[in-house]
Design brief:
It is a single chain. The protein is of the alpha+beta class. Helices cover about 45% and strands about 35% of the residues. The protein is built from five helices and six strands, in the order αββααααββββ. The strands form two sheets. The protein has a four-stranded antiparallel beta sheet, with helices on one face. A two-stranded antiparallel ribbon has the order 1-2. About 15% of the residues are buried. Keywords: Membrane, Transmembrane, Transmembrane helix. This is Conjugative transposon protein TraK.
Length: about 200
């Protein structure tokens, strides 16, 4: 009887140990499964030119400085990249105006009224812009920015270089095909736009 009682206690203890072990293993497996699923939900695979590229999802606040700088850069490139073609000018300016409020529209209207775009077309002038740097203040909302750039005005016989500094604010708006960054430039104005020099074309 003692042997039976001892054997029963041993079997019961072993059974309890196995049950506790199974519960611990099950809990660990569930934890790892949820953790893996959460990690996989933050990954996106993009197929580009036959290659699978891995992308990671992140909160927008982590990308605000990068997206804001690219938004400002894109706006300035559309607004200031001009060729002696009315359709090109309208296309670029239209794309730029989707990214800014009426402060940019007023500047465009003033330039148009003063014959700036007509002069570009009649004089066969091309204008390009090189963004040197963009500073964004993300500590206050709307986010203030300042853009430092160099304009190149290409004429038949010469290339003029101008220094350009602009500033404004960025407000959050809904993303769209015309505004993929989800920002809107407000109170945009030019602080400085002066000649740096002119070089003759060979």
């Amino acid at each position: 009887m003692k042997n039976i009682d001892t054997a029963f206690r041993h079997v019961r203890g072993f059974t309890m140990l196995v049950i506790v072990g199974c519960i611990l293993i099950s809990c660990f497996s569930l934890y790892k499964s949820f953790s893996l699923v959460s990690q996989m939900q933050n990954k996106v695979y993009i197929l580009a030119n036959g290659k699978a590229l891995e992308a990671y999802a992140s909160d927008r606040k982590d990308n605000i400085p990068i997206e804001a700088r690219d938004h400002v850069k894109t706006f300035h490139q559309f607004f200031f990249t001009l060729d002696p073609d009315d359709k090109v000018i309208k296309s670029n300016v239209t794309k730029a105006l989707y990214l800014a409020d009426d402060s940019a529209k007023r500047i465009y209207d003033d330039l148009k009224e003063n014959g700036y775009y007509s002069g570009i077309i009649s004089g066969n002038v091309s204008q390009t812009i090189k963004i040197d740097s963009i500073t964004i203040d993300i500590n206050t909302y709307p986010y203030g920015f300042r853009c430092y750039a160099t304009q190149n005005i290409i004429r038949t016989t010469s290339i003029a270089h101008r220094n350009l500094i602009t500033e404004g604010n960025l407000r959050n708006v809904s993303r769209s095909d015309n505004n993929p960054h989800g920002f809107l430039i407000e109170r945009w104005n030019t602080i400085e736009n002066r000649d740096l020099g002119t070089e003759n074309r060979k």
